[in-house]
Structure formats: C-alpha cells, structure tokens
C-alpha cells in the first residue's frame, strides 16, 4: 500500500500560502542557503543521485540534463522553466504556482546557481491570469528578500529572473518551440540536435525543465538525495503530483511516491462516481495511450506504465466511466491535435487534419468498415514521422482506443451513429434529458 | 533597434499621448530581455491593452519598436490564439470543450451559451460585452467543467450558472472567479497584466480550491489519527511549521469538494435526485 504524502503540497493549505513569509516560515529558502555554500558541480551530482526525472512528461533524468551543458566559455547560459502546462488532463503545475509559487522560485535560484545561469526565465501560458500575477509577485518578493538579484545572500552570485507570459499555443510546451516563442517567434519546434543544452535560448547553452521538476529541487537539497531516492521505485524515484479528474468522487491533486497505482488513488479519492464503473483512463494526459480497468494495478512509474503499453507522462489521470463514448472522447482529442498542430511538418499538419475528418464521420454515423483501418493507417504514417512529439501524441488515443474498444467504433458505423446519451456523462446531470439517441441520428 | 523618437515619424495612427505611453511601456518590456525581440509577445499583449485587439496600428507599433516588418509581426501574432484579429468583447468567455470538460458538461455549457448569447465561437455579442470561445484544456481538469472569463477560473460550471454569469457580465455587474482575483477585470486590463505590468492584485483570492487540497487533506487526517509528527516518507510534513493553517473541511461540508454539485438557484428546480444507474441503458 503506497501512502499519500505532502512534500510540494505541504504549504498549500496555509493561510496566504503564496506569500514568501508563509513559505519561509515552513522552512523555505533553506535549500538555497545550503546550495550557495555548495560547489555547483556537487549540486548537479546531488540531483543526479536523487534520481529525479523530468516531471513534464518525458521523464528524462534532470541531473543528466544539467550535466549536458558544455564547459563554461564565459558567455551566458540560461535556465528556462516550462510552465506552459497544456497537455489535456494535466493540471498540476498551475495549482502549484497558484498556491505556492515560491517553491518554484527557490528551485529556479538553486538550479540556476548549479548550472551557472545568471538570467532565468519562467515561461507560463498566457491563459492563467491569476497564476501569472502570483508569479510576478513571488519573484518581486524574492528580489526584495535578497533571494534573487545581485550578490544573493552575500555569495557573490547574481541572478535575474523574468516571468514571461505566452499567448495560447499548446505546441509551446515542446521545449524547442518554447524557446522559439520566447525569442519572439512563432512557436515551432527546432530540429534536434543541436539540443538546447548546446544551443538553446539565443543559441546559448540552456536547460529547459518542467515546473514540478524545478520545484522538487529545494526538497532534494534540503532533505538530501537519499531521502528523495528512498521514495518511489528504484528507477522512478521521488514524489509526484497525481491529478485525478473526470468521473471520480473526489477529483483533485494527490501527492504520492511514484509507483502508486490507480486502484490505490481511487481508494483515496472515493472511487469512480457513485453507481458507475471505470471504463477507460489516461495515465499521463491525452498523448499517452489509454488504459482500461485491466490496468488498475499497474504501478504508476515510468517503467511499469511503459511496459503496460502507455507512458507515465504528466500523471494526468482522466477517469471516464461507462457513460462515456470512447469515439466521442477520442474525436475531441483529435480536434485538439489538429487545432494545435503548428503546421511545420507535413505528417502532423495533414495527418491530424485527415484523422479529424475520418473520426467526425464515424462519430456522425457516416463511417464505413474500412474507416477503422484507414484511421490506423493514417496513424502509422504519423507516428515516428512527425517533426516533434505532438504528432506521435495525436495517434496515441486513436490506436489505443481502437485496440480496446474496436466494437464500440464498429457500433457507430453504417448509419448507426452514437449510441450514447452525452447528458449522462455530465457532472451536473447524469439523468437522460432526451430519449436515447436514435439510430442514425448522429449522436452528439 | 528601436527607436524612432517618440511621436516622430511613427506610421501608426496613435495620438501623441497614447504613443508616448506605449513607447514608455515598450522600453520597460524590452529591458527585461537580453534580446529585444523576446519582448514581442508582451508587446502584442500591450497593444491589445490599448486597442482591445492586435490592430493595424499595434502591428506597426511593434514593428517600429523592434525594427521588423509588419509582415514579420503579423506572422507571429496570427500564430497565437490569445491575439485577437478583431476587436474583442470586454470579456472573453471561454468554455473548455476539450475531451474531459466536454464530457463533464462543457459541450452542454457551450451550446447553452451560444444559444443564450446568439453568437458562435470567436464571435462577440452586438453590445460588445462578451466574446464567446471554445477553449482548449486550461489545466483545471479537477474542477471540470471549467469556464474562463478573461482567463480567470470559474470552476464546476453548469449551463444555468454559465448563462447567469454572462447575464451579469452583460449587465455590468462585478463577477468573482472561483479561484482568482476578487473580481474579473476587463480584457484590456488583463492584457496589460499579461504584458508584464503587475496590477497589484496577486494577494486577492484563495491559494487553492477544494480539489487542489484533496490529497493534502487526507495526509493531514492520517497524521491526526496517528497522532504522530509524521510518517516515514513524509519528512516535509514532519518538519512543517504552518502558520495559520486552516483546518481542512470535513468531507461533504461546505468548501469540501465532495460537496461539489452546483448550487445555482436554478439547480434547485432542475432534475432532482441521484440517477438510477439502470435507467437509460446505453445499449
């Protein structure tokens, strides 16, 4: 039995949790003071030893990413925090920055010191006004307290932090697209290599890390790499925010060591909403292949989820019960990918467009038997052929849902349309408001 | 790079006072970045704070500030959905219709609002008050279905509550988000904040809503039962010193997310009672 815990979430229920005074009263910025007395190389090693892996979805070892920076050449090096949280289902970084932005700011200061950066950026999506206000205020408070700025705590170390608001584009969560956007361009991914560690922001060595990854750093410095690596599993160490949403009794943020299972999380969250059963779920956002009730006991760590055919991603656990039409769900995600495809590469730009057309006609009851194979063929022509992971992600919900729910797709074909009543899946009323959809009526 | 003197030879149509203010703000924006071009996104938010959209004048202004062409500025502006190509309403009402919210009721909310307001996606009511949008996932899935008004969170909405919300906006009333500032500001004011000009409202509103604290509430309850300072694996909890920490709500009471069914007046007269799981079988 894996227990819930409170590391990043520990101050979230305090009065004025977002204020520097609250954070400091709970021991905040002790990590920075320690870090400033530590050799930067030792800090990088500490994060390597902790086993911290990127919490933005890919799971790349954070310390190793820092270690990829070339030797200092006298020019600038940058830290860019990816706070562009937009993956459907993912809702952890935004509440973190709303409740406790200082966790992130302290992490930024420690990480910047460790990698030799003197100007760090927090790129937050523009669609969260109050979170942006909280970040601006948090950085201002940190400057005033001497945690940022010139000669931090008498160490001789200088750090400037800029909080930058995006303007609405999912693709900017891809790290090189984010860098282009931060340079004032259309947010389109760059060819890799060179990786950002070598040529990132302004073609200078750059570390791009997710909010939760950076916010985990102060705890590692304060409590030690051994503490962090004692949590979770051998290869997926530490704590993580698990975000339950959808048809669950108590949706919300559940912090736990990696390796907890959905069954354990659902137990804590009061289970699937009363009177209903789990049908399918995403382990890490819409770009991770869906799971079903067969996967309730899969440990939610990088290796186990991967071995079961999906990805841990951002631990965005979107729960759908038996009232939900999987075709409708997948069709809507596909609309999203088509809308957010940046247009740079043909497989993704054209492929998501066609996926959307085919899914719409299936959903409307106008699909034919050959359309399922057509969908899978389209996916096959996108997966691994797109410029970045957005195209790959677009195929995940389709191929996995056809794998598990082929019969449900087939039930839509040949003029039959959607057999589900969308009213039953809503939060506010799951009683039918209209007669069940008529055959061929096209459903929703 | 910049730098035409204020008011001199600007090809924009701004009056001298407006232009001088814009130039002063732009200087502050560009000073935040090692490379001034990084200031383009905030500059575009800035021109929206003056014009209510990315106007022709706004594009030319950005081009003049950065020494770029209007075409280059337009290429960037048209990539991002928050930059509006037509005058925006005073309030952007965005209904999340990505899968999770759509399933939880976002589709029904959008349909109701479109009908109620008589406008479709990215259209503005004739009085200029509300621009309706379908928005993508806004990172509040545990509060689904979510409506954003000028990018402030209105959690756990219903068609009725959302319609009432737009009525109040159109009547000029002050509305308060679930998690955000004490009141929703105008589109132009919001755009100025997004350009990086703090409006001093960060301390308004809550730190977290109920679902955000759901897991923590259970950790606190378990610690209270154990009557122990902490359990192995929760050193942060063990060492925590939380001034003024509030007592977490009991499940099912006010402020507890277990009690999350909507409470708009119209709900009292809506279809009542728990659904019979056997009723309206999907097959």
Considering residues with a beta carbon less than 8 A from a beta carbon on another chain, report the largest interface and each chain's count: A-B, 124 and 113 residues
Given the C-alpha coordinates, what overall shape of chain B results?
A: globular
The outline of chain A comes out as globular
Average pLDDT level of chain B: 85
Total strands of chain B: the figure is 5
User: Count of DSSP helices of chain A?
Assistant: 16
CATH topology description of the largest domain in chain A: Rossmann fold
Strand line-up in the sheet with most strands of chain A: 6-5-9-7-8
Features:
heterodimer, A: 444 residues, alpha/beta, Rossmann fold, Ubiquitin-like (UB roll), de novo design (two linked rop proteins), 3 domains, five-stranded mixed sheet, four-stranded parallel sheet, 40% helix, globular, disordered C terminus, B: 283 residues, alpha+beta, Glutaredoxin, 9 helices, 7% strand
Polypeptide structure, described:
The complex is a heterodimer of chains A (444) and B (283). Chain A is of the alpha/beta class. Chain A has 3 domains: 20-230, NADH-ubiquinone oxidoreductase 51kDa subunit (Rossmann fold, 3-Layer(aba) Sandwich), CATH 3.40.50; 239-321, Roll (Ubiquitin-like (UB roll)); 326-425, de novo design (two linked rop proteins), CATH 1.20.1440.230. In chain A, 40% of the residues lie in helices and 11% in strands. Chain A contains 16 helices and 9 strands. Chain A has helices spanning 20-25, 30-36, 40-50, 62-67, 93-99, 101-115, 129-144, 175-182, 211-223, 225-230, 262-268, 302-307, 326-340, 346-363, 370-382, 389-412, and strands spanning 78-83, 119-124, 160-165, 206-210, 239-246, 252-257, 278-282, 291-292, 316-321. In chain A, the strands form 2 sheets. A 5-stranded mixed beta sheet of chain A has the order 6-5-9-7-8, covered by helices on one side. A 4-stranded parallel beta sheet of chain A has the order 3-2-1-4, sandwiched between helices. Chain A is globular. Residues 432-444 of chain A have low confidence and may be disordered. Chain B has 9 helices and 5 strands. Chain B folds into 3 domains: 16-77; 91-194, Glutaredoxin; 208-261, no CATH class. Chain B is globular, with a radius of gyration of 23 Å. Chain B is α+β, with helices and mostly antiparallel strands. In chain B, strand 2 and strand 3 form a beta hairpin. Chain B has a 5-stranded mixed beta sheet. The termini of chain B are far apart. Chain B has helices at residues 16-30, 40-51, 56-66, 70-77, 99-117, 159-170, 187-194, 214-226, 235-238; strands at 91-96, 123-124, 130-135, 147-149, 152-154. Mean pLDDT of chain B is 85; it is low at 229-283.
């Amino acid at each position: 039995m894996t227990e819930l815990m409170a590391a990043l979430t520990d101050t979230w229920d305090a009065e004025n949790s977002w204020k520097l005074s609250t954070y400091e009263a709970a021991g905040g910025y002790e990590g920075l003071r320690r870090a400033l007395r530590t050799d930067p190389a030792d800090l990088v090693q500490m994060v390597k030893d902790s086993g911290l892996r990127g919490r933005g979805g890919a799971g790349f070892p954070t310390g190793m990413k820092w270690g990829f920076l070339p030797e200092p050449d006298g020019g600038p090096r940058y830290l860019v925090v990816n706070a562009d949280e937009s993956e459907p289902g993912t809702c952890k970084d935004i509440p973190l920055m709303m409740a406790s932005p200082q966790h992130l700011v302290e992490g930024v200061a420690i990480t910047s010191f460790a990698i030799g950066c003197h100007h760090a950026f927090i790129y937050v999506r523009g669609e969260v006004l109050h979170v942006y206000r909280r970040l601006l205020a948090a950085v201002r408070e940190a400057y005033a307290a001497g945690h940022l700025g010139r000669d931090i705590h008498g160490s001789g170390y200088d750090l400037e932090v800029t909080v930058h608001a995006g303007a609405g584009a999912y693709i900017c969560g891809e790290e090189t697209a984010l860098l282009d956007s931060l340079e004032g361009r259309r947010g389109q991914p760059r060819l890799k290599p060179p990786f950002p560690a070598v040529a990132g922001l302004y073609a200078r060595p750059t570390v791009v890390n997710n909010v939760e990854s950076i916010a985990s750093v102060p705890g590692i410095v304060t409590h030690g790499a051994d503490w962090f690596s004692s949590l979770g599993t051998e290869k997926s160490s530490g704590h993580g925010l698990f975000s339950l949403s959808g048809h669950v009794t108590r949706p919300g943020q559940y912090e736990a060591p990696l390796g907890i299972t959905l069954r354990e999380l659902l137990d804590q969250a009061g289970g699937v909403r009363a009177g209903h059963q789990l049908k399918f779920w995403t382990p890490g956002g819409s770009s991770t292949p869906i799971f079903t009730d067969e996967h309730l006991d899969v440990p939610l760590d990088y290796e186990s989820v991967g071995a079961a055919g999906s990805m841990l991603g951002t631990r965005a656990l979107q729960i759908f019960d038996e009232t939900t039409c999987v075709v409708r769900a997948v069709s809507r995600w596909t609309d999203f990918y088509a809308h957010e495809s940046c247009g740079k590469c043909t497989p993704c730009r054209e492929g998501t467009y066609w996926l959307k057309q085919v899914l719409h006609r299936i959903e409307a009851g106008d699909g034919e038997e050959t359309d399922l194979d057509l969908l899978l063929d389209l996916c096959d022509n996108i997966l691994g052929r797109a410029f970045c992971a957005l195209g790959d992600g677009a195929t995940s919900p389709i191929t996995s849902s056809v794998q598990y729910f082929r019969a449900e797709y087939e039930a839509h074909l040949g003029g039959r349309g959607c057999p589900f009543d969308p009213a039953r899946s809503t939060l506010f009323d799951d009683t039918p408001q209209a007669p069940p959809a008529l055959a061929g009526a096209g459903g929703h | 790079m910049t730098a035409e003197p204020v008011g001199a030879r600007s090809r924009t149509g701004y009056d001298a006072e407006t232009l001088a203010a814009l130039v002063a703000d732009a200087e502050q924006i560009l000073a935040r970045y090692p490379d001034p071009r990084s200031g383009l996104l905030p500059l575009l938010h800035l021109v929206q704070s003056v014009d209510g959209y990315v106007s022709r004048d706004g594009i030319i202004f950005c081009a003049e500030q950065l020494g770029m062409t209007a075409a280059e500025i337009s290429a960037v502006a048209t990539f991002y959905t928050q930059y509006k190509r037509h005058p925006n309403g005073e309030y952007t009402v965005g209904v999340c219709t990505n899968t999770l919210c759509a399933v939880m009721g976002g589709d029904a909310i959008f349909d109701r609002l479109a009908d109620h307001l008589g406008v479709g996606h990215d259209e503005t009511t004739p009085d200029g008050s509300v621009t309706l949008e379908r928005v993508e996932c806004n990172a509040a899935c545990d509060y689904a279905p979510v409506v954003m008004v000028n990018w402030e969170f209105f959690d756990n909405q219903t068609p009725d509550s959302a319609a009432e919300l737009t009525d109040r906006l159109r009547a000029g009333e002050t509305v308060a988000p679930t998690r955000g500032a004490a009141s929703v500001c105008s589109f132009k004011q919001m755009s100025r904040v997004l350009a990086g000009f703090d409006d001093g409202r960060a301390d308004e509103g809550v730190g977290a809503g109920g679902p955000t604290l759901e897991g923590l509430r259970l950790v606190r309850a378990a610690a209270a039962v154990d009557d122990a300072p902490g359990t192995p694996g929760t050193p942060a909890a063990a060492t925590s010193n939380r001034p003024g920490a509030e007592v977490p709500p009991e499940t099912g009471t006010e402020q507890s997310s277990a009690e999350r069914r909507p409470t708009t007046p119209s709900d009292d007269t809506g279809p009542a009672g728990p659904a019979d799981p056997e009723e309206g079988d999907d097959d």
